[in-house]
Amino acid sequence: MEGGTTQVLIVGAGAAGLTLGIDLARRGVSFRLVEKLPEPFHGSRGKGIQPRSQEIFEDLGVLDRLVAIGGEYPPQREYRADGSYEESFVVEPVAPTPDEPYHIPLLVPQFLTERVLRERLAELGGAVEYGVELLGFEQDADGVTARLATAEGEETVRARLLVGTDGGRSFVRRSLVIAFPGRTLAVRAVVADVTLTGVGRDAWHRWNEGDMARQMSLCPLPGTAMFQVQAPVPLEGDVDVSAEGLTRMIQERTGRSDIVVQSVSWGSAYSMNARLADRYRNGRIFLAGDAAHTHPPTGGQGLNTSVQDAYNLGWKIAAVLGGAPPDLLDTYEEERRPVAAQMLGLATRLLDAAKEGIIRRGREVHQLDIGYPGSRLAVEAPERSGGILAGDRAPDASLTGAAGQPVRLFQLLTGPHWTLVGYDTARDAGPAAAKGVRVVRIGADGDLRDDAGHFAAAYGLKRGSWMLIRPDGYVGAIVEAGEMDALDSYRNDVGLGARAVRRQ
């Protein structure tokens, strides 16, 4: 059966696939998002949303919804053998700042995060096709022909590009024979979503930290009446994840007979791995999310890294399908694969610390300091030093509009466009407006004022400079007034049209 054509076929409807679908939908790119499971995943698995991902979700229009159903991490309550306990924070509370408005990781069960993403996708006219399995694919110079198994039978679909967001056991990756080196970390754990009695929801309850044979964790899941059970288990053998089996494990490890599991919504025993695909691209086919990297859960890096893969890839796909140079897509792997390697190293170190009973987290897990300074998409004057650099995350700033109303810089960046910022430039200087680029002027003669100095402090630009911010919130180019030709060349390289017409 012929299934028609689409521009992009996305295989796998987890957080990465949903994020990519949302980004393509708001850019007007046609796609199909297929998932072989018959219904949405209903486990809590990846439950931490880091500050950088919160910035992304603000741009995608879902952050407030996630905060409304989620919450901050509760204090961790570590019990002693005599039943007394000590409380501390998993993440030290840090106040937001004008340049970093989100400083605290958000706790949301993965199934609720994905539900919010599906709702946003529906608002943009998209939907997940459940019970649709990729059977095989072939690519040629013009596109990819894929075979799908659906409830109506086998179907053939033609796409310009295919993206595998189909998890750690990715069919797409294995079909491409892309190596997935790494290691199994000699840690196996049970994780389950349960309702139970015996402990309150005001803390993350923990016993026997540092003892991998007896460790037990019960974390209340915001937006639900459930707790997430986490516990290391032997590397071999069956694990009973029934209500009775989990009750028995909890009581044996805590010494408390009052904790009783009433029901189990989802449970799994899994071995932790740290693996990274050798390549993220094979011609017209790409890997993203867990299909490209798998992490131990420590530090909450896996889901966040996956979301940011999709956020990096989405605008580049749209640009190339819209006529940008095809080699723009090469920058996806160039930028994202080193980040995944860095996050794998971090998660593995945090796992080693957790084995010793150390589970506190700092700024290193927030992903705010991730950038692409070595990317071919990072351009600035070689002698420039200090302040923000090309390839860095673009900070937020509190500004004032010429009409007197407060404006956050992030509000101006929201959407699928590029943003060209002129800092204290002459009113009639610089490029004219162009499709896909929003022009913002900050300064005495601009449409925005930096009355509190937040923009100047965060960016450190010279007066008269122009800065081009990418659709994914990273600084692409910084040029001074006499370097506008370099800015024109950059715009051509990323598909922003012919050379900009200067204002006269």
Question: Would you give an account of this structure?
Answer:
The chain is an alpha+beta fold and 504 residues long. The protein is 25% helix and 29% strand. It contains 11 helices and 27 strands. The strands form 5 sheets. Strands 1, 2, 8, 9, 10, 11, 17 and 18 form an 8-stranded mixed sheet that branches. An 8-stranded mixed sheet has the order 6-5-13-14-15-12-16-19. A hairpin with a 5-residue loop joins β5 (76-79) and β6 (85-88). α1 (15-26) runs parallel beside α4.
Short description:
The protein is an alpha+beta fold and 504 residues long. It has helices spanning 15-26, 51-60, 63-69, 110-123, 171-175, 243-254, 302-321, 330-355, 409-413, 454-459, 484-493, and strands at 2-11, 31-35, 48-49, 71-72, 76-79, 85-88, 106-107, 128-130, 133-139, 144-150, 153-164, 182-197, 204-207, 216-220, 227-233, 260-276, 281-282, 285-287, 293-294, 379-380, 398-401, 406-408, 418-423, 437-442, 448-449, 466-469, 475-479.
